């Protein structure tokens, strides 16, 4: 019931935005902000009423779609997806607040794209049906493509929009064939039924590869990661935040739910492959990040590095590893979003993302620099922040799985220090190259929940782990996996 | 044929066709008596013609739906009524209703001073209804020729345009060659089996043990001719030039209406009559045609800068998908094909009506990308609709086009055509590029010139809203389409 209500509020929001006249920009923005905040508050009720002792799906909603073909739309939340939903509903109001003064182009299309993205994302994370997961997984492409293409800042946005769209579409169509094969083989696309189906090892390998093609582009893993720096740089601030904060989690969520859940033997078989790609990704993109001259591109490369670290944790096959991967995803959702919002603050003032032009900001924007420092430290994994918890536990589980992998993954912390500290030093300290006005109240409100969330996850993560525990244990220790 | 039952079965089932035939004569007389002077032709005559034609099509639609005869062969087994014929006639009459409702604005703007156009529309309706109900190779040929003659005339209608004349001539010559091949194939089959009736052919080829080269070669000629009319590769050469050269309203009719009928005929041939030849002939034949069409559709579309030709090549690609659906040879395949046809018809109607609107608001009829820049500024709602429709055409969820492709893929994977499915995936991604390039042109590019709000004509907007609502909100209630397509597939095969 609660899930239906969440989605209904968003649909009402989109409809209301359509009927508000296009020139009433302030009213539209206030309306969109109130709708997304309302959705966030309702999603907290999901957590409030969540039963931590069971790994079964809760708040299940079942709508008949094609009863003759046994495909129905089933929505539900369990320990794994609960926090992704809350992350989604938290990031969207912050994005809308951050883009309050964004006036390039049509505000109505902007807000409608964002609200429909939120609708589709909540549907993706709560979906228990394979076909509908695929449908909404792909449907996210449409509003994001429009946001990047219409509201991007320079001509390269078109190239970025094409790359974003085509990389994801290419992999996803292979996943479609996999979904169809699963449906025809087992007669159902419902995830709960599918988790009892045993695929043969040969089938599992091919299906795993089909799903890999789709999720690897989203994570993004190494050969198909090029779209990410392009899309992040060319998108508007709020678009980058959504991309980094939520859309990247779709890949790791997909791996977790479907590759690990449905094809456990193939996952074990392909673990060395994933480890190699992820480690290459971590080291290579961290080193590339150090070389960047564009603020957003630097943070984009660090996003790739963090998500590849998450992939290592997912495929270790331990409860600690998977839980840490989920926590690291959530933490990355907070930290990366905050970093892009920080860059957005700078871009709003001076319309430039070149690192060379910024320096000595701490003298005139101290509050901003404090927040920037906090998130820089969170980016490199300072103890006390959520990202330390995630990275440390990921390294613990990687050590259990493969000590060489752990050694190379640990270099991520060192390289992380490299790019984060150097970037922060160049911008905050040094000669005063630029003077500016400090954060206003709206921008401060945008950062406050992110700071509090990062600290909360870093200081007392058990609140999060205890929710995930039942579902993750069920996944890792299911009879299929062993 | 039982003469005693001629009024009970044959005439009763043929009421739509008879009504259309009489209506053609009545409309022709109405036009020639009232259209005395050229000046009065389109002030008095066109609105009344449109209303007459719409009323005729609507009434024949009601006649089709209320067919008292169920699943019988008629007129000495030359024709048949079954679920496929009822349903396909319904779709075609709706498609023609769409075309007629759009034609008012086009007639006024392009100064089409010819009431015969509406007589031709009714002639198309009659010939397609006959084609769909045909159950004999000869009646298929006759209906096909009837249709083709009307199409040849319509294609070269614009007398002051070289492109139109070229289109008509190319279509005429190539179409005649195709019809010759049809006759040749039919004669070979008659030679091999001694009958041209599809029902008798089904009984005779049921347990075919020897592979007769006459049957194979005859069938290949026959179905090649039918695929030519559809625009499948390797018989696709005429499509780009004809779609571009013909007046846009006529291109709309070409793109939207005949595909259902020809696919109905191909379905009858491959699934009912020569079903036993499926593993040896049809699978390979339709796979090759389908893959070639996909290949041609995606590659040639990449190089096109003129919108009408782009849509022509995209239709080649879609016919490729439909051929692949036929290749799978199961009920799911037939279901996928029928379903895809409906979705494609609605999407094509939407996009071609938009092209018509562009044609009316721009100077030349040869629409390049430059004519479409900045659509979103001049008409935001229409722009959003067109963009979402293009996403549906590319096969992006959650719109109707995705479900159509999904069904075809189900048919393919069900028959274990994995490599074919992977190839279809590749071509889908490549063709997705030129679809999103269109969206880029509409939405992302800056318009250098002044733009004015260009309202859409009333008939067009009604059709666009209907098609748009069905395709965009398809996901909310797909049950009707799926079950109907499945029922028709079952009736065809068993």
Automatic annotation (TrEMBL), chain A:
<feature type="domain" description="NADH:quinone oxidoreductase/Mrp antiporter transmembrane">
    <location>
        <begin position="129"/>
        <end position="411"/>
    </location>
</feature>
<keyword id="KW-0520">NAD</keyword>
<dbReference type="InterPro" id="IPR001750">
    <property type="entry name" value="ND/Mrp_TM"/>
</dbReference>
<feature type="transmembrane region" description="Helical">
    <location>
        <begin position="444"/>
        <end position="472"/>
    </location>
</feature>
<comment type="function">
    <text>Core subunit of the mitochondrial membrane respiratory chain NADH dehydrogenase (Complex I) that is believed to belong to the minimal assembly required for catalysis. Complex I functions in the transfer of electrons from NADH to the respiratory chain. The immediate electron acceptor for the enzyme is believed to be ubiquinone.</text>
</comment>
<keyword id="KW-0496">Mitochondrion</keyword>
<feature type="transmembrane region" description="Helical">
    <location>
        <begin position="206"/>
        <end position="228"/>
    </location>
</feature>
<dbReference type="GO" id="GO:0048039">
    <property type="term" value="F:ubiquinone binding"/>
</dbReference>
<feature type="transmembrane region" description="Helical">
    <location>
        <begin position="326"/>
        <end position="347"/>
    </location>
</feature>
<feature type="transmembrane region" description="Helical">
    <location>
        <begin position="402"/>
        <end position="424"/>
    </location>
</feature>
<dbReference type="GO" id="GO:0003954">
    <property type="term" value="F:NADH dehydrogenase activity"/>
</dbReference>
<keyword id="KW-0812">Transmembrane</keyword>
<feature type="transmembrane region" description="Helical">
    <location>
        <begin position="235"/>
        <end position="256"/>
    </location>
</feature>
<dbReference type="GO" id="GO:0015990">
    <property type="term" value="P:electron transport coupled proton transport"/>
</dbReference>
<keyword id="KW-0249">Electron transport</keyword>
<comment type="function">
    <text>Core subunit of the mitochondrial membrane respiratory chain NADH dehydrogenase (Complex I) which catalyzes electron transfer from NADH through the respiratory chain, using ubiquinone as an electron acceptor. Essential for the catalytic activity and assembly of complex I.</text>
</comment>
<dbReference type="InterPro" id="IPR010227">
    <property type="entry name" value="NADH_Q_OxRdtase_chainM/4"/>
</dbReference>
<dbReference type="GO" id="GO:0008137">
    <property type="term" value="F:NADH dehydrogenase (ubiquinone) activity"/>
</dbReference>
<keyword id="KW-0830">Ubiquinone</keyword>
<protein>
    <recommendedName>
        <fullName>NADH-ubiquinone oxidoreductase chain 4</fullName>
        <ecNumber>7.1.1.2</ecNumber>
    </recommendedName>
</protein>
<keyword id="KW-0813">Transport</keyword>
<dbReference type="GO" id="GO:0031966">
    <property type="term" value="C:mitochondrial membrane"/>
</dbReference>
TrEMBL record, chain B:
<keyword id="KW-1133">Transmembrane helix</keyword>
<dbReference type="Pfam" id="PF00361">
    <property type="entry name" value="Proton_antipo_M"/>
</dbReference>
<feature type="transmembrane region" description="Helical">
    <location>
        <begin position="459"/>
        <end position="485"/>
    </location>
</feature>
<feature type="transmembrane region" description="Helical">
    <location>
        <begin position="114"/>
        <end position="133"/>
    </location>
</feature>
<feature type="domain" description="NADH:quinone oxidoreductase/Mrp antiporter transmembrane">
    <location>
        <begin position="134"/>
        <end position="431"/>
    </location>
</feature>
<keyword id="KW-0496">Mitochondrion</keyword>
<feature type="transmembrane region" description="Helical">
    <location>
        <begin position="337"/>
        <end position="360"/>
    </location>
</feature>
<feature type="transmembrane region" description="Helical">
    <location>
        <begin position="49"/>
        <end position="67"/>
    </location>
</feature>
<feature type="transmembrane region" description="Helical">
    <location>
        <begin position="139"/>
        <end position="157"/>
    </location>
</feature>
<dbReference type="InterPro" id="IPR001750">
    <property type="entry name" value="ND/Mrp_TM"/>
</dbReference>
<feature type="transmembrane region" description="Helical">
    <location>
        <begin position="213"/>
        <end position="237"/>
    </location>
</feature>
<dbReference type="GO" id="GO:0042773">
    <property type="term" value="P:ATP synthesis coupled electron transport"/>
</dbReference>
<dbReference type="GO" id="GO:0016020">
    <property type="term" value="C:membrane"/>
</dbReference>
<dbReference type="GO" id="GO:0008137">
    <property type="term" value="F:NADH dehydrogenase (ubiquinone) activity"/>
</dbReference>
<feature type="transmembrane region" description="Helical">
    <location>
        <begin position="416"/>
        <end position="438"/>
    </location>
</feature>
<feature type="transmembrane region" description="Helical">
    <location>
        <begin position="87"/>
        <end position="107"/>
    </location>
</feature>
<feature type="transmembrane region" description="Helical">
    <location>
        <begin position="249"/>
        <end position="269"/>
    </location>
</feature>
<feature type="transmembrane region" description="Helical">
    <location>
        <begin position="281"/>
        <end position="303"/>
    </location>
</feature>
<feature type="transmembrane region" description="Helical">
    <location>
        <begin position="169"/>
        <end position="193"/>
    </location>
</feature>
<feature type="transmembrane region" description="Helical">
    <location>
        <begin position="381"/>
        <end position="404"/>
    </location>
</feature>
<keyword id="KW-0472">Membrane</keyword>
<feature type="transmembrane region" description="Helical">
    <location>
        <begin position="20"/>
        <end position="42"/>
    </location>
</feature>
């Amino acid at each position: 019931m609660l899930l239906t209500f969440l989605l209904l509020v968003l649909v009402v929001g989109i409809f209301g935005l359509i009927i508000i006249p296009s020139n009433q920009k302030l009213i539209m923005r206030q309306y969109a902000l109130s709708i997304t905040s309302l959705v966030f508050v309702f999603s907290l009720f999901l957590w409030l009423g969540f039963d931590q002792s069971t790994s079964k799906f809760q708040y299940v909603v079942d709508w008949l779609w094609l009863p003759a073909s046994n495909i129905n739309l089933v929505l539900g939340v369990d320990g794994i997806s609960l926090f992704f939903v809350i992350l989604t509903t938290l990031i969207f109001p912050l994005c809308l607040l951050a883009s309050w003064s964004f006036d390039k182009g049509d505000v109505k299309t902007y807000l409608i794209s964002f609200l429909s993205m939120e609708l589709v994302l909540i549907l993706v994370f709560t979906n228990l049906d394979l076909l509908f997961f695929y449908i909404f997984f792909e449907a996210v492409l449409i509003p994001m493509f429009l946001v990047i293409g219409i509201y991007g800042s320079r001509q390269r946005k078109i190239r970025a929009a094409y790359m974003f769209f085509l990389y994801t579409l290419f992999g996803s169509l292979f996943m479609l064939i996999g979904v169809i094969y699963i449906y025809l083989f087992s007669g159902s696309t419902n995830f709960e039924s599918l988790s009892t189906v045993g695929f043969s090892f040969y089938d599992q390998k091919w299906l795993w590869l089909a799903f890999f093609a789709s999720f690897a582009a989203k994570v993004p893993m190494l050969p198909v990661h090029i779209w990410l720096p392009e899309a992040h740089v060319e998108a508007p601030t709020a678009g980058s935040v959504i991309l980094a904060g939520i859309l990247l989690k779709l890949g790791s969520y997909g791996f977790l739910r479907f590759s690990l859940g449905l094809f456990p033997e193939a996952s074990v078989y392909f673990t060395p492959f994933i480890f190699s790609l992820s480690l290459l990704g971590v080291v290579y993109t961290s080193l590339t990040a150090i070389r960047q001259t564009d603020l957003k591109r630097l943070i984009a490369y660090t996003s790739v590095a963090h998500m590849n670290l998450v992939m290592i944790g997912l495929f270790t096959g331990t409860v600690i590893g998977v839980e840490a991967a989920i926590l690291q995803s959530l933490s990355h959702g907070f930290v990366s979003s905050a970093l892009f919002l920080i860059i957005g603050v700078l871009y709003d003032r001076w319309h430039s993302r070149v690192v060379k032009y910024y320096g000595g900001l701490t003298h005139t924007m101290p509050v901003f620099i404090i927040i920037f420092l906090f998130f820089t430290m969170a980016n490199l994994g300072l103890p006390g922040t959520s990202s330390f918890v995630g990275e440390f536990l990921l390294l613990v589980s990687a050590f259990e799985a493969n000590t060489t992998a752990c050694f190379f993954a640990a270099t991520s912390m060192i390289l992380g220090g490299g790019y984060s500290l150097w970037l922060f030093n160049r911008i905050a300290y040094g000669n005063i190259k630029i003077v500016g006005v400090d954060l206003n109240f709206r921008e401060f409100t945008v950062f406050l929940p992110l700071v509090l969330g990062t600290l909360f996850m870093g200081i007392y993560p058990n609140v999060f782990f205890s929710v995930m525990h039942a579902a993750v244990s069920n996944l890792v220790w299911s009879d299929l996996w062993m | 044929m039982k003469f005693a039952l001629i009024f009970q079965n044959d005439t009763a089932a043929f009421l739509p066709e008879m009504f259309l035939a009489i209506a053609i004569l009545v409309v022709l007389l109405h036009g020639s008596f009232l259209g005395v002077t050229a000046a009065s032709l389109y002030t008095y005559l066109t609105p009344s013609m449109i209303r007459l034609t719409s009323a005729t099509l609507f009434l024949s639609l009601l006649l089709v739906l209320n067919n008292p005869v169920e699943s019988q062969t008629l007129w000495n087994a030359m024709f048949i009524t079954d679920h496929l014929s009822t349903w396909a006639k319904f779709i075609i009459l709706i498609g023609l209703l769409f075309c007629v409702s759009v034609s008012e604005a086009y007639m006024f703007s392009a100064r089409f001073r010819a009431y015969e156009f509406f007589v031709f529309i009714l002639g198309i309706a009659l010939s397609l209804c006959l084609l769909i109900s045909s159950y004999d190779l000869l009646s298929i040929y006759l209906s096909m020729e009837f249709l083709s003659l009307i199409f040849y005339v319509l294609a070269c209608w614009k007398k002051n345009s070289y492109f139109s004349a070229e289109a008509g001539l190319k279509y005429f010559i190539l179409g005649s060659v195709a019809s010759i091949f049809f006759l040749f194939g039919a004669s070979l089959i008659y030679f091999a089996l001694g009958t041209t009736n599809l029902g008798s052919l089904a009984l005779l080829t049921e347990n075919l043990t020897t592979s007769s080269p006459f049957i194979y070669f005859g069938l290949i000629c026959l179905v090649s001719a039918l695929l030519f009319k559809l625009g499948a590769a390797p018989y696709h050469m005429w499509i780009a030039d004809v779609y571009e050269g013909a007046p846009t309203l006529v291109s709309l009719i070409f793109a939207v209406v005949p595909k259902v009928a020809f696919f109905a005929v191909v379905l009858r041939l491959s699934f009912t009559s020569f079903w036993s030849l499926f593993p040896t002939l049809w699978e390979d034949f339709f796979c090759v045609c389908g893959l070639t069409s996909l290949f041609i559709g995606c590659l040639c579309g990449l190089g096109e800068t003129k919108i009408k030709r782009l849509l022509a090549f995209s239709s080649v690609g879609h016919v490729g998908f439909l051929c692949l659906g036929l290749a799978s040879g199961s009920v799911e395949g037939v279901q996928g094909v029928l379903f895809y046809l409906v979705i494609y018809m609605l999407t094509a109607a939407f996009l071609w009506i938009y092209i018509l609107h562009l044609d009316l608001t721009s100077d030349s009829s040869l629409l390049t990308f430059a004519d479409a820049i900045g659509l979103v500024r001049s008409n935001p709602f229409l722009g959003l609709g067109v963009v979402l429709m293009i996403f549906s055409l590319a096969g992006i969820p959650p719109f109707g086009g995705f479900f159509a492709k999904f069904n075809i893929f189900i048919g393919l994977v069900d028959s274990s055509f994995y490599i074919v499915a992977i190839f279809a995936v590749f071509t889908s991604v490549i063709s997705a590029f030129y679809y999103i390039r269109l969206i880029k042109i509409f939405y992302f590019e800056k318009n250098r010139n002044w733009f004015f709000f260009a309202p859409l004509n009333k008939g067009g907007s009604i059709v666009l809203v209907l098609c748009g609502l069905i395709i965009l909100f398809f996901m909310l209630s797909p049950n009707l389409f799926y079950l109907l397509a499945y029922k028709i597939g079952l009736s065809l095969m068993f």
